[in-house]
UniProtKB/TrEMBL annotation:
Residues 10-236 form the DUF7918 domain. This is DUF7918 domain-containing protein. It comes from Teratosphaeria nubilosa. Residues 157-176, 255-307 are annotated as: Disordered.
Length: 307
């Protein structure tokens, strides 16, 4: 999971099948801002994903406040996660899964999936270029907020007064994109949506955001081949297409095992360097995150925004 220098103790990652996808540093060309950190992850075609988050209250600087995570996918779809101040002190990995929206029949949720784009050489879409800047990006804005508990009557009024949102859809509904629109950008996937499911709103209060986001996490998802072309991943034989949940689990666990191997190799090279042995090639990749040890802490699956 990624850690932001402005928010020690807040861990954020991309969850697939209960695992955090390995995260990789980008190239020197990536623009890093004081409030934003950028990580790359491999998009696994067809995999359902969510946003994992965890707070270590022993070092987190905002334990007196509630915390809100505003999540957007491709700049087009959104979801939300709140930690009330009383929740910040509780251990546990939480997963925010899917895009939510309101209908006249109640709240609905649609799961998020990685979908591969189909490129063609036809005419460009004049309406797309300005919107493609966020394609292939999951952005999580973290803000302090104040929680106010509402009475049952106020909660009912609040829920009844919600305006219905348009049903969400992928940025490129048919998944087809002209190479002319890419303009050399290595975009390979988008976030698309699964079948809708109904769920019950669980909020008993309202949250008011206090100021600007104190941290922004930006995850750029690409195919393995694209990450290799960037130099983010070392080149290796192309894997076969994944078709089952077990195969997806296998590749994620394999990435974590490779991360551990790379860590050990770097340790050996440092020891050799201290002994005067500076032979051998340098590492071609820096692994920045490893799988957290599984679950002695409680895990909560978050299905909706809380307000």
């Amino acid at each position: 999971m990624a850690v932001h220098p402005n928010a020690p103790g807040l861990f954020v990652g991309i969850d697939v099948n209960g695992w955090d996808l390995p995260q990789y540093d980008g190239t020197d060309e990536d623009e890093q801002k004081s409030t934003t950190i950028i990580k790359y992850v491999e998009a696994i075609t067809g995999a359902e994903f969510g946003i994992s988050s965890r707070i270590d209250s022993s070092v987190f600087p905002f334990t007196q406040d509630s915390v809100r995570l505003d999540i957007d996918y491709d700049g087009n779809l959104s979801s939300r996660r709140h930690f009330r101040a009383m929740d910040v002190a509780r251990a546990g990995r939480r997963v925010t899964a899917g895009a939510t929206y309101n209908t006249v029949d109640g709240m609905m949720r649609r799961p998020m999936l990685f979908a591969e784009l189909t490129l063609h050489e036809g005419a460009s879409d004049e309406q797309l270029p300005g919107r493609l800047v966020n394609l292939g990006t999951i952005r999580i804005r973290c803000s302090r907020c104040k929680f106010e508990r509402l009475s049952s009557r106020d909660c009912a009024t609040k829920a009844g007064g919600r305006t219905s949102r348009k049903q969400p859809e992928a940025l490129i509904p048919d998944g087809k994109l002209s190479e002319k629109d890419l303009k050399g950008k290595a975009l390979t996937h988008q976030a698309t949506l699964g079948d809708p499911v109904r769920f019950k709103q669980r909020s008993n209060g309202k949250f008011t955001v206090l100021g600007e986001p104190f941290a922004i996490f930006e995850f750029r998802y690409r195919s393995r081949a694209a990450l290799q072309a960037f130099g983010v991943l070392p080149r290796s034989p192309s894997p076969q297409p994944l078709t089952t949940r077990d195969e997806i689990d296998d590749i994620i666990q394999g990435h974590h095992a490779n991360a551990d191997d790379n860590k050990q190799q770097r340790k050996i090279k440092r020891e050799r360097s201290l002994c005067g042995d500076d032979g051998g090639d340098g590492d071609s990749i820096q692994m920045t995150e490893h799988r957290s040890k599984k679950a002695r802490t409680r895990e909560v699956i978050e299905l909706s925004d809380d307000d």
